[in-house]
Here is the input.
Amino acid sequence: MSQPLTELFPTEDNIPEQFKITQSIEQREYLVGGELKTWSGNLNPVLSPVYIKEGGKLKQKLIGSTPLLTSTESLAALDAAVKAYDLGHGVWPTKSVTDRIEHVEKFLVAMRSQREEVVKLLMWEIAKTQKDAEKEFDRTCEYIVDTIKAYKELDRNSAKLIEDQGFMAQIRRVPLGVSLCMGPYNYPLNETFSTLIPALIMGNTVVFKPAKYGVLLIRPLIEAFRDCFPAGVINIIYGRGRETVGALMESGKVDVFAFIGTNKGANDLKKLHPKSHRLKAILGLDAKNPGIILPDADIENAVNECIMGSLSFNGQRCTALKILFVHKSIVDVFISKFNEGVKKLKPGMPWEPGVSLTPLPEPGKVEFLSDLVDDAKRNGASVVNDNGGEFSETFFYPAVLYPVNRNMKVYAEEQFGPVVPIVPFDEDDEAIQYVLNSNFGQQVSIFGMESKRVANLMDAFVNQVGRINLNTQCQRGPDTFPFNGRKDSAEGTLSVADALRVFSIRTIVATKSTDENKQIISNIIRNRESAFLSTDYIF
Here is the structure.
């Protein structure tokens, strides 16, 4: 780090013109029943993690405000979604697959026209680098394209009649009902849309509450949502969760709960639903993904992957490597090379070229991470990298902790930030027992070259986590791969194809294969008398 962290914050004059927010964005609009309503009540200020130098002092940048809606407005949004679904008889759930695809494609065109504004807001709201913000936007657009392709393929596979044991039938997927979609602040566009778009395209109606941080970036898209979908199909609300979402769940009218956040938050909200057995939950939750570096690992590759895995977007990813188990025979070399790599990461503002480390958007995060570091030091660890754990306002410089043991909070607790705990080990069983006894079960990364040893570890983990990565960091992509977890890490499986399935249910029309029944089925299909029973083929 070539300069103190405080000096990294800019003056207004030092911000490139194309990235400036010269006037606070006051948002009072929210979407209910196809209408943009104007909120006249209190607003929630949106403070950027970026501080601005003014007269020798640092001042947190106010970039806008959003409506602090109440349960009254959120329940009105829910009622609009319930009305639009109309017990499965509404316009949207009864539309043809082709028609719903056309609506989503229209939205995608409108969304792409807002790329520059959404990227800028990602940078200001959550301090995501320009490169990563652009990647998140483009990946989200690609996800929508891939979802449409997957939906066409799913429908093509369903466009046939099957016969078995004297019965003929057609099996298709139909929507589940009213969905409540809530995304995370670290990927407020991509991960939110990975549930929102599949829910919509499968015929569900939606109440959507943007992430707690990264909320303003939905504003450039809200008119597109209004214009591209029938009234009530997508409803967008804002405000504090306890005043808005709690009321939605208590109503019992939510059929699908799509939530990416903490397992505690998910548990608390699910308990509010009066008919929990009727609630379908799709959850992406906490993780404590370990990286296990064996003595014969390719050190250069392991170091590079572990740096990216633990510190990309400041470690604020559920798929981040949250703890590293390094064999004692190579731990000194590993730490030396790891620290060299960390030193090369450029700290700065999101718009600066080549920047890797940026301020943290979550209030209180710096204090939380400092407490983890202090606790580790009290229990025998040291900060082994230069400037590790130094902070200024919202900026926290990565802290590499060694040796970490089970007596430290950071051993089991998810840090969700730039703190890298390193645990030395002798026997592979030490790492295996960590995974077996963890409350989380999302992913694990194994770095090593001896196939038998790697295979033994793989077999130990296949019934513990959703994904095992060999000589690479933990990650979600490609989006065609299943993304899930066990224990407190997830419920349900997401990928392009899996998401379509979790937001729908298979329904079957069946009859005995008699001549009379075959004639009835033939007439229905030939005369297009049913929206469900059809052999139309989408190209």
